[in-house]
């Protein structure tokens, strides 16, 4: 019978990292299922979600890993980063501390992940315009300085979530092929 699995050209592992409560789980569920879950911690225990997309005529299965709340309690282990070709590094535009910690997350990636990993810096909760404390300019400057791609998203409205993931997957595709 017809099996869509047979037609997959690549599987790309992507990890989602960043401080607790910045919206990592919601971004992932928005991209994988086009959902925003009000009961956001229902995903604890789920290790990854997948979505298959077409990029440059290749069928690519994105296997996207969530820390499932573990970032709260201990350093994310190197097993989490093993084989990852991309990372979504998320902060919350309304929480200065989550942006201040981005440099630490980059160090963690440089220490544990493959050196060719493609990193997308994501300023989430862009819908909360009145509560913004991290300017787009500051984030762009940091991203350029560190060689990261950058996007501002809202998992709530869905704005830019798809384009941020697709950009990351396109860049990974151009690295591997
Ligand atoms: P995680 O700990 O990084 O996985 O964060 P969650 O995905 O659990 O989200 C933390 C909280 O922020 C939850 O109450 C979400 O409903 C909320 N949240 C996540 N993304 C957004 C967003 O884009 N906009 C707004 N307004 N709230 C969000």
From TrEMBL:
GO terms for molecular function: GTP binding; GTPase activity. Belongs to the small GTPase superfamily. Rab family. This is Ras-related protein RABA3. It comes from Phaseolus vulgaris (Kidney bean). The chain holds residues 18 to 194 of 240 of the full protein.
